[in-house]
Every structure is written in C-alpha cells, then in structure tokens.
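Figure S7 source data.
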Amino acid sequence: MRKKSGRGIRPYLYIAAIAVGIIILGWLIFSKPVPVYQEKIFSSLGTVVRVNLAGDKVSSEVLVNIAEKEFSRIHNKYSPNTEGSLIYILNEKGKVKVDEEALFLFQSAVNYAALTGGAFDPTVRPLIKLWGFDDEFSTKRVPTQEEINQALSYVNYRFINIDKENMEVSFLKDGVEIDLGAIAKGYAIDLVIQRIREVDPKASGFIDAGGDIGIIGPKFKELPWVIGIRDPFSQDYFSAIDTIYLTNGGVATSGDYERYFISEGIKYHHILDPKTGYPARDAVSVTVISENAMTADIFSTALFVLGYENPALEYFTNFGIQALIISPTGERIETSGFNYFREKIK
Ligand code: ADP
Ligand code: MG
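Tokens for the predicted adenosine-5'-diphosphate complex:
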C-alpha cells in the first residue's frame, strides 16, 4: 500500500521541483539587485557635507570617496581663506591666472550677478569681513555706517575683469575682494554628480552641503527623495514647514538661521544686501529648485536679497528655477511651478 502511494506522489514531486527551479531561475534573471547606500560626512567649503550614494557598476564606497576628493579639490582651489587658492591669490594680488574650469566659474558668477541686478554679487567680501562672517573665528559686530560706506565702494561685480585670451581674472580697482560662498557649494555638487555619472551612470543618491542638495537618480531606482524645508521660525533643526520630492536636479535653501549673531536684540545674518551693506531683511528663508545645484545655490541667495515683494520673481523661472520665499512674517510666496514638486508620484 505504502509503495503504491509513493509511486503516485513522485511525478508531482518532479513537477514541483521543476517549478521551483523555474521560479529561482526567473528571480535570478529578472530581479534587480537592491542598491546599498553608503553615507559619508565630512567638512568642506565651510560647511558639513553629507553624501549618501549607491553604486551600480562600482562600489558605493568608491563613489563616496570620489565625492569627498572632489570637494577637497574645489575647497583648495576656491576657498578665500586657503593660502594659495585662486581666490586667495586674486584677493591678495588683484589678478590671477586661471584654467578653463575656473574661467567658467568666474564667468558664471559675473553673469548671474548681472542677471540678478547685483543681488548676488561675488565682490561682497569686504562687507562680509567687516561683519565678521568670513570665518567662524572672526569677531562678529555691527559696523558703523562709515565703515559700511567705505566697504560698499569696493562692492560691484563690474570691477571683475575676465580676460579669456590671456586666461586671467583681475580687479579693476584696488581693494576689491571676492567670495564665492554663495555659488561654490552648488558648483562642487554639480561636479561631483558629473564625476559619479562618468564612472557609474546608474548610481543613485544625494549630496547635501549644508542645505544645498544635489540628487542623483531615484532612491532604490524607483522612489523620489523626500526633502524637508526647515521651519525658519523654529529652533528645532528637524522641524519642517514643507516637503518636496525630487528624483534629479538641485535644491538649495538660504536661511537667516545658518550663520548669525544677535546684538541689542536684533539678529544679523550672513546674507548681505550688496546695495545697503546690511543683512537682507525681506526674507527669512528661500528655497530654489533647479536642474543643477549651482543655479539653485546662486538664486537662493539672490532671491533672499530681493525679498518677498520682488516683482521679477516669476520672470526668473525663465532661467529654469522655481522658488519658495518665506517673508519675515511667515507669509509664503512661490513661483507658479513650485507646487509641482510637492507631488509625490513622478
Ligand atoms: P549658505 O552658505 O548658508 O548656504 P548662501 O548660499 O546664501 O548660504 O551663501 C551665503 C554666503 O555667500 C555668505 O556666507 C557669504 O560668504 C556670501 N554672500 C553673502 N551675501 C552675498 C550676496 N549678496 N551675493 C553673493 N554672495 C554673498
Ligand atoms: Mg546660495
């Protein structure tokens, strides 16, 4: 009896074994490996940089190291406080020889300064130094009106002369100094993304340089990255007032809470209005979304200076950006396409 029933079951076992085999084979052929993200945190360009990357062709570890190396290269080349950097030499000697890459960065800075009517102006450094925002160790204080007027006489992007033929950047006036603090982080992020795509086109992840963020492809190859916009009225770093979803591109937030000091009950922060010489007063937070991180970085600073009553806000969407401005009273003003990024499903 037992033998008989055993013979009856055997064909079913074969069929089941073949079916399991087919399922395993199918899984091996069609399943995509889940990306493994690696995080690395380092300090560069005066801020904390957090990279979170997953490789497809090369290991995630290789990618995060590429990111750190690239940031370090950009820092050493453009930081105004690093002896021997292009900016250090330019500020000291009034002229410097540049390569193609630096020429692009200087030209971009000047072009965007012109485009924003000088709201973004890389020659703000004499003012930045006066307020003590050039270095975390500098003394922070409210300068006198006379000191501000004196510093203002050196602030104008038109004092920057770019000589493409001789590959040289120079100042047209003694005493001019520049600071690429409102563009360098975004620029570095774009370069890192470019390098990563070169070595691993299917890599994904993000780079966050103190509120300037670059996104490289969807999370786990299918999900958008969730980016919280910090509440500028809250002391809590993690308190968000809005959420956007991105699978690519750049986003930057400039806030009055990043670097500031309080004197006689008044808050003085690090984004200066190149027209008045004082911290810009008509915004407390500006978030800009763009296809690349450099434009997002520049415009987050420029729109902060131009403030919430800026009549040209919508006009700037012609340059590929969308923006959300928070006024000092908490009012929200945004460009027509900003809301699109609040949609989860892309
Ligand atoms: P964060 O550095 O906090 O991300 P921003 O991107 O807005 O903020 O850049 C602010 C930095 O840019 C300042 O620390 C200063 O070095 C420089 N900066 C300040 N005001 C201006 C301005 N109006 N135009 C260009 N650069 C500026
Ligand atoms: Mg900026």
